[in-house]
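Entries read sequence, tokenised fold; example below:

***
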Amino acid sequence: MKKQLIHTVIALFCIQLSVAQDIIAIDTTNFEINAQSYVIEQYKGQNAIYIQGGTLSPKNMSFLNGTIEFDIYLKKEQAFPGVIFRMTKEQNAELFYMRPHQSGNPDATQVLPITRGISPWQLYFGARHSFVYKYIYDDWTHVKIVVNDNKAQIFLNHAEEAHLSWYLFHPTQEGTLFFRGGNRSGMHIANIKIDKSKTALVNFKSVDRKPIKGLIPQWEVSDKFEEKLLEDPAQLKTVISSRKWGKKIQVEEGTAANISRQINLRNKVPGNTVFAKINIDSDKTQSKLFEFGYSDRVVLILNGKPVYRGNNTFRSRDYRYLGSIGLFDAAYLNLQKGKNELLLAVSENFGGWLVTGRFKDMKGIKIR
């Protein structure tokens, strides 16, 4: 009996040791820490880091497939803690984060791509990219993400079924891994585990998104320039003629085209604005209703003349306004017979550099 008890104690000790060894000790030996401030400390029974306004990244590690786990002590305040994985030198990555201030709401969580340093949540919204979750604020929240080639799943608080299954947005490519805490006041993170051997998905079922019918499928975009150049209509001809062209963007999610696929907002070249262009062939002089969406601001220019200006920036219309992309604006365009050039000068701050549009009535016109 005594011998059996000894064996049991040894077995439990080995299991505990194995679990402990899976946890990466949070220190400057194992992690690159880039933050406004941080403290490594004991918190609520765990070896943790309190990180404010920044990230921590495992040193000498790239990530392709596997299971990422950690614990986070959430606060009921506006913050966006989560995980960035497969970050490339082009600043493309996959991202999951939580909105603890939106507990119980449809946008309590978020998955989306980072494209050239921009995370376009104003495009990637709805049940395909978020799920309702009621957070706890008096205990640790456990997060597990399983990544397998072009698919991933999220499990919160040791759930057996995934809360969300989704197809990843970028080509399967190894990259850097980052954990991020809160914003102004920070949050505690503990018990980080990364197991590249665990890639099994559980009942993978992604959510479909209903596409918007009749969208212009492709836009040609110019090089970028500074938004202030649009202020003087008399200078538009010069601004347009000095642009470089040739790059194309396509509609994604059946909703909008992502300008960041082709144009890098975050490099050191000045400018936050591009022209997105289509040509319209009209069989006669006529007026057509053009429905469109953009992020963040736009000037419509038809045949060299400005006809509309709009602002869809986050919180530009009220304090809860998100600026999500959709066909929420429209203009009657006076088309001339023959070729017409329509330019949308789209300017971006953050949240998604986007453009979309359609003519519901295509009679007598062709888009090229």
Residues 5-21 have pLDDT under 50 and may be disordered. The chain is about 5% helix and 40% strand. Residues 272 and 347 are 5 Å apart (CA to CA).
